Here is the input.
Amino acid sequence: MNEPRTQLMLCGGSGCHSTGTRAFREALQKELESQGLVEEVKIIETGCNGFCAVGPVMLVQPEGIFYQNLRTKHVTHLVEEHFLKGRPVPKLFYVEPASKETIPNMEEIPFFQHQVFWAMRNKSALDPEVIDEYIARDGYFGAAKAINEMSADQIIEEMKISGLRGRGGAGFPTGLKWEFASKNSSDIKYVLCNADEGDPGAFMDRSILEADPHAVLEGMIIAARAINSHQGYIYARTEYPLAIRRLGIAIQQAREYGLLGKDILGSDFDFDIDIYQGAGAFVCGEETALMRSIEGKRGMPRPRPPFPALRGLWEKPTVLNNVETFSNVSQIILNGGQWYASIGTETSKGTKVFALSGDVANIGLVEVPMGISLRTIIYDIGGGIPNKKKFKAVQLGGPSGGCVPEEYLDTPVDYEEIVKLGAIMGSGGMIIMDENTCMVDMARFFMDFIQDESCGKCTPCREGTRRLLQILENICNGKGKAEDLVALDQISDVIKASALCGLGQTAPNPVLSTLRYFMDEYHAHVYEKKCPAKRCVALLKFEIDPNLCTKCGICFRNCPSNAISWKKKEVAKIDKEKCTQCLTCYEKCKFKAIL
Amino acid sequence: MAHVERPQHPDISNDMFDKIDEIIAVNRPRPGSIITALRECQDMAGYLPVELIDYISHGMNIAPSEVFGIASFYALFSMEPKGRHTIKMCLGTACYVKGVKQIMSRIHLEYGIGDSETTEDRRFSLEAVRCLGACGLAPVMIVDKDTYGALSSDRAVEILEKYE
Ligand SMILES: Cc1cc2nc3c(=O)[nH]c(=O)nc-3n(C[C@H](O)[C@H](O)[C@H](O)COP(=O)(O)O)c2cc1C
Ligand code: SF4
Ligand code: SF4
Ligand code: SF4
Ligand code: FES
Ligand code: FES
Here is the structure.
């Protein structure tokens, strides 16, 4: 069979699946078949392309035409025009909202313009289930160089020069971590990949695995060479079936090509990788818990030291890195550490992938150079806050992180600078919140998560987070007292100082950072029994203020339960019996007339 | 393998037991594979009844107390039967910001189930999960294998009504 002339990189990320990738794909395949085009035009389902906001999306390669908002009704026209007659279909191009200009090529869309694709360099560029396509884009050249031309020390040195730091949250220098493990002599050592992706608002690692599994394998091979390990494991979230399937295929193909297994690339170096599926426990993202879990035990953390570089999995020296960290490695080895360090700030080099979501126009996955400001990400890439609402905060680092308010948006993406604000770089969740978000409720949300996921091994975390949650619930329910605000602070300090693992030590961060920037909202809840964002149901009256109501009827038209009565030129009225407290009317009323 | 009598259980057929025996045989020699064995058995039987956990622990030659400890530690494992349809409601941060809480309470109102509960007629099981990777379309739920985004309470119920 001939090589297909055109490849349709159809996004198979879950964002696009929820807008109909599957139906579109089936219709497209049928149409290609009936037009006799299947030999020439091939559909490839990729991982998340990044621009989920306009999904399903499809990139036509090699032309680089980007189609968006695809529906089955577009199929016949698209196939006939573009794939039979060679005329791309402008109707399906991206339209710049301000200028109304249509943009056919992906790189020219503003969303992609400030981005730098290093970790995600192969997204929408290759079929992740075909190793040759990866190899055709310099794949496994880094591993070949590391194995055939470099000593372990040289690999580690290059990694140190690159300045790459762990992308899983803690930000530990990768080269240094490898150096520790390489110095500990042992007949058996392990290289582990953390693909447990626990931050509940993030999906970067999943997308990398789905789009480019070989990049992760290659990074692991290089790490194994550096520390002299012969066995690796990928600890993957069981909720990621496509990522796991693709990893399995990739491992199989790499073995067939002699890139995994015995005598890799004709050298005398052996290394193999197996997948281990997690079973749904956030704490298993913590390194010692993860290792316990692979050992088939309950995933509870243990005190460090000893660090895993000395005693890790099965008590052997172990290196654990995050998916995104590994996916950067081969390019560093290939192009040199200097190359990687050429972008970024003093202490934070290279790029970082973020899952941008919440109240922002261009929701999706973005990869930006370190040092870029939060404002550029939110406004230039993200397109700002939709529905004419005001920005309130951006949350970084999920349950271990914190929020950043408007006045600090010019802060650069840099590990140290973000910590100064009381947040953390984190693994890449970036959630934008507009004025309708209640910050006390957000603190409660994260504490609920943490409390649920605490493994219960140590008292400060187990009891402390329960207590914090209780207090926050009371405040949201209108039962908050002045002393609660002091207690939040005090309990947080105790937990931070005495919890055993990172989960507990960082658990108070969402509380502390909201206390720091949004004390006025806490005050309103506690002293006035009001929720300024109108989110905390117990503090709302579900009544309409006749003085504020402009009699516009918007609430009436939007109430899903028909609980609002309204006639032209009359003040609207809520029937509390019928009202399900869905809060739709609060969001829709432009005059803040609902109390 | 150690031969323990197969317990009688309405939800586990003899065929299933044959497959379960295979799973045990494959995993038994591998250190640390109890979690894998439990997952594969749960995929087979739909859930892990107490009798089955007991059976697996004998088969794997691991103390039942330890296996029960593991099964209860990990959220993946369920000792209760599941409904015909599983609703996975995303309670990740983005979905929360976009109001998934209201949808959860609507489902509670409509079907009488909360997180990790199953309707009495075993029509639906509701599971709160974290970030389904579709934050762009928050709030998001997965019913069986289908993903639905941009939900409102009404739309969620409308969709669920299609699952008998
Ligand atoms: C509670 C907790 C959860 C974590 N979850 C993850 C995770 O999901 N993914 C991840 O890569 N790292 C996670 N980490 C960080 C890991 O412990 C570890 O630092 C990281 O995987 C090391 O890789 P890196 O240096 O490449 O970042 C978590 C840490 C803690 C304390
Ligand atoms: S801090 Fe929390 S999660 Fe960590 S070991 Fe202690 S109880 Fe478990
Ligand atoms: S939307 Fe607001 S202003 Fe308009 S009728 Fe309803 S309460 Fe009154
Ligand atoms: S809260 Fe929801 S149900 Fe109640 S009146 Fe407003 S829109 Fe209607
Ligand atoms: S899921 Fe398709 S672009 Fe993100
Ligand atoms: S938070 Fe719900 S899909 Fe990401």
About this structure: The pocket of iron/sulfur cluster (ligand 2) is lined by residues A 283, 301, 454-458, 461-462, 499-501, 503-504 (CB under 6 Å). The CA atoms of residues 27 and 72 of chain A lie 6 Å apart. The first helix of chain A runs from residue 14 to 18. The two ends of chain A are 68 Å apart (CA to CA).
